[in-house]
Specification:
Largest sheet: 6 strands, mixed
Bound molecules: guanosine-5'-monophosphate, magnesium ion
Keywords: Cytoplasm, Glycosyltransferase, Magnesium, Metal-binding, Nucleotide-binding, Purine salvage, Transferase
Number of helices: 3
Subcellular location: Cytoplasm
Mean pLDDT: 94
Helix content: 10-25%
Strand content: 35-45%
EC number: 2.4.2.8
CATH class: Alpha Beta
Main location: cytoplasm
Enzyme class: transferase
CATH architecture: 3-Layer(aba) Sandwich
Length: 176
């Protein structure tokens, strides 16, 4: 039994495609934040693999923290965002880059941008590996975006389907 667990999965973005784009994002972030203290805030759990690769593509001194949210049950968003794990320390005066796996309806990022703004950071921007523009309910500014993808439920590279498939090294779609 492989990590696919017997499911048929079609590759949407290969390891090489992901790595090339993340190298570009890392170079842009390194240039834009040069000379400024940067804190990456990974949105758990889906961003853990992206954050690990992105952090290594950024050639700056930086800090890493995590925030946990949930809004999903299975493959459907409940629309109600909750913080399940908060940041480990205050962020006042810090430049924050929220690192997210995918902006779908945009509700999670909208909630987090509003929530973090109340803690008086120097700035908050969003870096999202993926965006599904067809599903947007609110417009969220994504300063650094990896890819726009079609309206399909994707898995792998940190993203799950009911907890499974996060350890695929590529981004895929489950086929019936
Ligand atoms: P939102 O709808 O609030 O923008 O999306 C919130 C979260 O839903 C994302 O951060 C991600 O964890 C999850 N999500 C949205 N679309 C997908 C998808 O296609 N696949 C997976 N595995 N999770 C998704
Ligand atoms: Mg997420
Ligand atoms: Mg999920």
């Amino acid at each position: 039994m492989s990590r696919l667990g017997g499911e048929k999965v079609e590759v949407l973005l290969s390891e090489a495609q992901l790595a090339a784009r993340i190298a570009e994002l890392g170079a842009r972030i390194s240039a834009d934040y040069a000379g400024q203290p940067l804190t990456l805030v990974g949105v758990l759990k889906g961003s853990f693999m992206f954050l690990a690769d992105l952090a290594r593509a950024i050639d700056l001194p930086l800090k890493v923290d995590f925030i946990g949210t949930t809004s999903y049950q299975g493959t459907k968003s409940s629309g109600v965002v909750r913080i399940t794990n908060d940041l480990s320390r205050p962020i006042d005066g810090e430049h924050i880059l929220l690192v997210e796996d995918i902006v779908d309806t945009g509700l999670t990022m909208q909630y987090l941008l509003e929530n973090l703004a109340t803690r008086h950071p120097a700035s908050v921007k969003v870096c999202a590996l993926l965006e599904k523009p067809a599903r947007a309910k609110v417009q969220v500014p994504i300063a650094y975006k990896g890819f726009s993808i079609p309206d399909e439920f994707v898995i792998g590279y940190g993203l799950d389907w009911d907890g499974r498939f996060r350890n695929l090294p590529f981004l895929g779609v489950v086929k019936p």
